[in-house]
Structure formats: structure tokens, C-alpha cells
Amino acid sequence: MKVDVLLGLQWGDEGKGKLVDALTMGYDVIARFQGGPNAGHTLEFEGQKHILHTIPSGIFHSAKINLIGNGLVIDPVVFRKEVDRISGYGFNMTKNLFISKKSHLILPTHRLLDAALENSKGTGKIGSTLKGIGPTYTDKTGRDGIRIGDIDLPDFRIKYEALRDTHLEKIKALNFPVDLEPLEKEWFEGIEVIRSFTLVNGEYLVNQWLSEGKSVLAEGAQGSMLDIDFGSYPFVTSSSTTCAGACTGLGIAPSTIRDVIGIFKAYCTRVGSGPFPTELVDETGERLREMGREYGSTTGRPRRCGWLDLVALRYAIMLNGVTRLIMTKADVLSGFDTLRVATSYRYKGEITREVPFDSLADVEPIFTELPGWKSDIRQIRHKEELPQELRNYVSFIEEQTGVPVTVISVGPDREETVSNT
Ligand code: GDP
Ligand code: IMO
Ligand code: MG
User: Fold this and answer.
1) Could you confirm whether 13 is annotated as catalytic?
2) Phi then psi for 324, rounded to 5 degrees?
3) Mutation test of ligand 1: which of 329, 414, 415 has the most ligand atoms closer than 8 Å to its C-beta?
């Protein structure tokens, strides 16, 4: 069987959690492949809202297997809280959640270092979630990291202390305050929780599942515009958020990938610093934020809001080889007389349909206006019942991208989903 990859095409928070949960019934395995607790994936069903950071969004279907792939970075403290919360709803995960031994550990000092480095950047701050992501991936590529599989080795404590002490020196040089004892205590308690799960050679397991005929949905975190290579560098995260990341983050060959499902909001949001060409810093932006409840799932920060950017979307579709699209938050656009969509940029006096190398900050979006729709669409479940203006909006996106929009999400609940095929 094959792997389908579902990933965010914008700046994260496109609704990946909701859609992975809604699609889980069609798969045997749900696997996260990169990122870590910087992710906040929201699921809503039966009147309950759940936010996941490290655990794949298939976890609420007890018959399904969930895998945390080698491409992730895991904070035992956050992981433990997630486990406690989900267990509190009566879900026992020890049988259907596996963790790759090759995923990397976020140390308490990685988190402190993240904060110290951000603090030292002044106005050049990335707007990091301060979960220790950057420093942990830095240690991974610098070949100094500690992996989940190391927790069972006799020299684990020695390795931990050596890395911690290197971090402490750096943090001290940045004049950042440290009170490590309580952080270490909860961290080692979290390590014990990780020990109660099955730690696996994820790459062998996932390939074995595929050869047994099992189907896999790979769940991305963040979005393509935050990718370490292709995002608006340096205002990016530290992992490969594109489809290529699914191969390296799970240990699967490119030829195992069947569908690449790209998910995007009907408009755009971004949390943290960095360029955002279609950003609305006016009442319309405020309206999108309030109607869309655009506040970060991980940090609670207000998300910056703006019109849909098709230049960025086409770029992400190209990078990922997206075969089908899912559009979320269509309901949030209800009530506007006119909607605007950026189809190209003016850059250094020229019109371009490409994302420039140096800075998205210097582009001026060129918009096409489309008529909006007035009715509340949250109750709609059949595409024929969607307002004609919304159908035209979707057709316009399909024409501009050359990729079909197969699902339209009209609300946060699992059920608030309309098939567009
Ligand atoms: P993720 O990181 O991609 O999983 O997205 P987040 O969970 O961070 O943010 C998406 C937010 O939008 C969450 O609060 C979801 O419950 C919510 N959401 C998802 N799809 C829809 C939708 O179609 N309409 C509305 N109104 N909210 C949605
Ligand atoms: P999900 O999976 C939105 C942003 C941060 C910051 C930049 C770097 O929920 O879509 P980091 O903590 O990774 O060093 O922060 O990336 N960021 C996200 N924005 N959704 C996310 O994840 C994000 N994860 C990181 O706000 O601008
Ligand atoms: Mg999120």
C-alpha cells in the first residue's frame, strides 16, 4: 500500500488536525514526520476540543496505529501533559502509539536557549514558539543531539549532563536567568512516561506496515511557507515541512507516496514575525481574526490575518507536488460583499508570479476581486447547497492552481466538512 501526505501550504494552522482526524477512518496508520511541540493541532468532535502538539491526530480512533516519526523533536514535559489529558478522556494509548527511537529529545536547556537567543535578537526576533525547536534541530544537525533511543543506554545521564552543561555556558554568555532544578525534575518524570510506550525502529516498522498492505497518512506540521529551505528565511521553523520531509522524517522512499493532500485556509494567517504580503492591518484583518478565532493553539498569540495569496499557494503546490487541495475556514469568509485574492506580485517595478529570493517583504500583491456570499454555511454538508459565489471562489482557485479542491471545511467540528468531488 501507499502513503498519502497531508500538509499545510501556508504559514501553519491551516486546520491539519481537524482534517487528519476527519480522514483517519480511511487509513490504518497516522504518522507525524517533523516538528514538535511548536505544533498545535486542534480537533473538535462530540462537543469537545482537543489540541495535540506531538501526538498524531489519529489518536482518538483507538483501532488506528499512530507513529511519532524520527523527524520529530520531543519534549517529555509536553508529551506527558498530552498523554495525561488524552488518558483523562478514557483513551489508552500504550497499545496504538509508537515512538521512533531516532526522534530527538528537547532538553530543558534547549527551551532556555531558545528564549535566550530570541531575547538577544531584539527587533530581529523570529517570533519562535519558544519550545526549544531551533536549538534541538541545531544539535541534531550539529551531531550533538540526544535521541529517544538513548534513554535506554547506560550512558544516557552522562550524555544528558554533557549537553546540558554546554547549553548552560551559552545561556550564561547571553545573560539569561536560569532556574534549572524544577525543569529537570519534570523532564525526567516525562522521560519515565516515554519509557512506558513502545520505542521502535520506525523506518522498519512503517515499511513493514506498507508491505503488509496497510495504508498510511503522513501528517505534516507547520506549513510550506515556514520550511527551513523554502520559507521566508530566517523567519521559518527549523525542519523540512514539505513533502520531502515525510521521506526523511519517516524513512520511506519517494515512490511510496501516492496522494499529496495540500491544506490551505480560504484566507491567510501567520503567527510570529516575518513578511506577509497580503496582511490586513485594518478592520478587515480584525474581523477575520475575530470571526476565525485566530489565536495560536500553542501560544495563544493573536494570528496576523490577510487575504488569500495564490502566488505563495502555487509555490507551495509546486514544491510539494500537491495532487489535491482541501480548503478550510470557508465559513469565516461568509458575510463579505467582496473578497480579494492575490494572483501576482509587483516586485522591483515588474509583475511576477514567483516568490522572490530575497524578501517577500518588498512585494506588493496584485489582487483580483471576487463577489462574497452572505449566508451561514456551517450547516451545509452537500456541495450543491453551497452558495454560488463560494463555488465560484473555489473554481477560481482551481483554475489558478491547476489542482482540484476536493474538500471544503465549513466549521471546526469533524462533521463540518463538505466533499467537493
Ligand atoms: P493546524 O495547526 O493546522 O492543525 O490548525 P490549528 O488547530 O492550529 O488552527 C486551526 C483552527 O481553526 C482551530 O481552532 C480549528 O478548530 C479551526 N478550524 C479548522 N477548520 C475550520 C473551519 O473550516 N472553520 C472554522 N471556523 N474553524 C476551523
Ligand atoms: P502548526 O503545526 C503556526 C512559527 C512560529 C514562528 C516560527 C518559528 O500548528 O501549524 P519555532 O517555534 O518553530 O522556532 O517558530 O514558526 N510556527 C508556527 N506557526 N503554526 C505552527 O504549527 C507553527 N510552528 C511554528 O510562530 O513564527
Ligand atoms: Mg496549529
Assistant:
1) yes
2) -150, 155
3) 329
